[in-house]
Amino acid sequence: PLPARLPATGLLAANLHWGNAAYAETRGDAEFVVDAETLELRLRYERPLGKRFALYAELPWRRTWAGSLDGIIDGWHDITGLPGDAREGLPRDQLLIEYSVGDVSRYRFDTPGSGPGDLVVGLGYQLLASDRSALSAWLGAKAPTGDADELTGSGAADVALSLAGARVLGARLRVFGQADAVW
Prior knowledge:
Radius of gyration: 20 Å
Helix content: under 10%
Shape: globular
Structural class: mainly beta
Strand content: over 45%
Order of helices and strands: EEEHEEEEEEE
Number of strands: 10
């Protein structure tokens, strides 16, 4: 997410995301399977440029591997009674991302990969800022500095226009929203 209120001073931050994905779909003789974990550390720098503009840069480091969260997630499904869907038919702690048609594998990723991801830079403009509300517009660009074969990058340059808004509704209640258009 991008900030609705531009930073007043320079800010260096880190964000860690550890995710687990299990998905399997078959249509006719085509099959798509995703069974992986991703660990991503994003380093982000934000800096004001005057009163209404700000700059940010973000560089992720990403790792995709078999992981170790399957047992914890299976336990959660057992305790809550929620369906596990595709997870129930997949081996524990496996790394497999594959698309196949018949007996022919069109894409297969089953070896752990890690490295720096795609570098993102952006310029923000404060459209509105009051005590209770803020709205900012961002123009961002992503350079393909990651490795698509290692799943650390997309392999393509992107440009995005984003709007980020926030409103304080009460002492303990705030809302935030963001809309993006990406090319």
